[in-house]
């Protein structure tokens, strides 16, 4: 029997859950506060350049994820990133092989969310304020007072603290969600005036400041002009979460120039983004949380591991488990 599901959050986990439910014959409505689907798997476009300022690439190790991606058509937007990769450790750059292959969305990582959202009813720029339950089912109320529903069941894919706030009055799931910490991460996007580039196209960093750095122009389907993305590590980002953005950029610039022996010079353009819920500090260790009596569930990349593959695993398991619980 077909049911009506509401999904809060149009990140990769929420879209995966929605697509799984829809494929099983259920109706689904997805609500998200952002301007487009995809969550942190996003691409910033500036002056004809593109910057993947969230997850820089996507690897697949789980056969279920591979099968889901192929049947959903989302993998048709992926191509292997044939770049040169390295790890920065103890001040030295150590070359790495791309194993498993590093896949990227074309023309940007944001394309992954857009593909997952195809044929799904996704409403963006909706800020969910509270949930209400009646004999007719669940209703979602946004901050403007508009309502959505009724739904037979809800899946919440917001970061743990936000999900707990929505569920606190309705389910004991909130008590499990509240203690799950999420890490902060700064992403600095820069287009140098010169042809300055990093010595490797993708660099994982074991460094007091840096976590990741990449030459975005080396990815397939990107413009040829230099475009760099630099991400700070979570500990440093947390320590500077409320610092003046200009000071954050200054310190990131120093770290990049000293670590990679390059001179960036004045930028043609640059932008700084602060992800407040970038990655789980310590994942929950189980794919999702289900309250069958309340017809509520929660999932996200915080459940298993902070990656696109982990988000797909969580969303798929959540939809499947909830359907079985309600059958």
Overview of the molecule:
The structure is a single chain. The protein has a domain at 4-44 and 64-78 and 111-180 and 284-326: 3-Layer(bba) Sandwich (FAD/NAD(P)-binding domain). It has helices spanning 12-23, 63-72, 110-117, 160-167, 173-177, 234-239, 245-260, 308-326, and strands at 4-8, 27-31, 44-46, 49-51, 78-80, 85-89, 92-96, 103-105, 121-123, 128-134, 137-142, 147-151, 153-156, 182-192, 202-205, 210-215, 228-232, 267-280, 288-291, 296-299. The termini are close together. The chain has a seven-stranded mixed β-sheet. Strands 9-2-1-13-20-19 form a six-stranded mixed β-sheet, with helices on one face. It has a three-stranded antiparallel β-sheet with strand order 10-11-12, with no helix packed on it. A hairpin with a 2-residue loop joins β3 and β4 (49-51). It is of the alpha/beta class.
Topology (SSEs and partners):
Elements (H helix, E strand, L loop, with lengths): L3 E5 L3 H12 L3 E5 L12 E3 L2 E3 L11 H10 L5 E3 L4 E5 L2 E5 L6 E3 L4 H8 L3 E3 L4 E7 L2 E6 L4 E5 L1 E4 L3 H8 L5 H5 L4 E11 L9 E4 L4 E6 L12 E5 L1 H6 L5 H16 L6 E14 L7 E4 L4 E4 L8 H19 L1
Parallel strand pairs: 1-2, 1-13, 2-9, 6-15, 13-20
Antiparallel strand pairs: 3-4, 5-8, 6-7, 10-11, 11-12, 14-17, 14-18, 15-16, 16-17, 19-20
């Amino acid at each position: 029997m077909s049911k009506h599901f509401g999904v809060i959050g149009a990140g990769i986990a929420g879209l995966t859950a929605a697509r799984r439910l829809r494929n099983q014959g259920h109706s689904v409505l997805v609500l998200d506060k952002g301007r487009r689907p995809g969550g942190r798997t996003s691409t910033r476009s500036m002056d004809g350049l593109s910057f993947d300022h969230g997850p820089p690439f996507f690897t697949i190790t789980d056969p279920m994820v591979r099968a889901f991606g192929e049947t959903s058509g989302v993998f048709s937007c992926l191509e292997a990133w044939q770049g040169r990769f390295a790890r920065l450790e103890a001040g030295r750059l150590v070359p790495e092989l791309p194993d498993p292959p590093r896949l990227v969305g074309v023309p940007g990582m944001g394309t992954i969310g857009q593909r997952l959202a195809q044929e799904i009813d996704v409403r963006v720029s909706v800020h969910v304020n509270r949930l209400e339950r009646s004999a007719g089912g669940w209703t979602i109320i946004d901050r403007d007072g508009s309502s959505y529903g009724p739904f037979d069941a809800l899946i919440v894919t917001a970061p743990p603290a936000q999900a707990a706030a929505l569920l606190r009055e309705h389910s004991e799931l909130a008590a499990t969600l509240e203690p799950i910490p999420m890490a902060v991460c700064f992403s600095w996007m820069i287009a140098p005036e010169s042809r300055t580039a990093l010595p490797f196209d993708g660099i994982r960093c074991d460094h007091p400041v840096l976590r990741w750095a990449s030459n975005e122009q080396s990815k397939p389907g990107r413009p040829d002009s230099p475009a760099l993305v630099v991400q700070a590590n979570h500990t440093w980002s947390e320590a500077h979460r409320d610092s003046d953005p200009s000071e954050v950029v200054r310190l990131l610039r120093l770290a990049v120039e000293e670590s990679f022996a390059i001179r960036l010079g004045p930028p043609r353009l640059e932008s700084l983004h602060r992800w407040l819920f970038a990655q789980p500090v310590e994942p929950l260790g189980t794919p999702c949380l289900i309250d069958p009596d309340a017809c509520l569930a929660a999932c996200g990349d915080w459940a298993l591991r902070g990656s696109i593959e982990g988000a797909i695993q969580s969303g798929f398991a959540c939809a499947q488990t909830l359907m079985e619980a309600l059958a």
